[in-house]
Amino acid sequence: MVKIAPSLLSCDFTKLQEEVKKLEESGVDYLHFDVMDGQFVPNISFGLPILEQLRQITHLPIDSHLMIANPEVFVGQFADAGSDIITVHLEATPHIHRVLQMIRQHDKKAGVTINPGTNVNLLDPILSEVDLVLVMTVNPGFGGQSFIEGMLEKISYLDDYRKANGLSYEIEVDGGVNAETAALCRERGADVLVAGSYFFKHDDYHEPVRRLRGE
Ligand SMILES: O=C(CO)[C@@H](O)[C@H](O)COP(=O)(O)O
Ligand SMILES: [Co+2]
């Protein structure tokens, strides 16, 4: 069954503790935590102090998506603050292999992601080093954008590649995911679906969980 990772970017931060409780009760699998630095992406979101507090109020795995330049400077702090999975952008560092090693040295799951304009083949040399590959289906920086269908072939490529090479990384999809686009992602082999604006427009979070899983 596909895993569901709501993007907290779209939740109501004035009621964070209530939101987290509702998410736990609805059966979501990960909490997706979008970190934006105003440099790698043209927006600023939240960072370490919020992550530390989030860690204190949930046992759900925290899936940190670092949209920050030079992530090697910060991955240690994001590990210590309570992330379970740390995903970095290939485009954000000249040292992607080293950053992934650093994440694993902190006993965290290492993820890599690419912008829509980046060729998926560029990931080949590091696919044996990752626990998760995140396919961006919007340009990172904002919630509420439309799903770019041309990215679906990256999911198929990554699914074929792991089967052909005996690898077991998870394939996660992020950006513009709703009930319809979720079905397209599941067909291509996606394992984890991130959803922000679609998810949080519902009052009862059981509903988007069911719909995104195609139940
Ligand atoms: O990383 C990002 C955006 O950069 C995402 O995680 C979004 O927050 C997803 O939001 P929706 O596209 O589902 O509204
Ligand atoms: Co994200």
TrEMBL record:
It comes from the Bacteria. It catalyses: D-ribulose 5-phosphate = D-xylulose 5-phosphate. Binds 1 divalent metal cation per subunit. A divalent metal cation binds at residues 32, 34, 65, 174. Keywords: Carbohydrate metabolism, Cobalt, Isomerase, Manganese, Metal-binding, Zinc. GO terms for molecular function: D-ribulose-phosphate 3-epimerase activity; metal ion binding. HAMAP family: RPE (MF_02227). NCBIfam families: PRK05581.1-4 (NF004076), rpe (TIGR01163). This is Ribulose-phosphate 3-epimerase. The lineage of its organism: Bacteria, Bacillati, Bacillota, Bacilli, Bacillales.
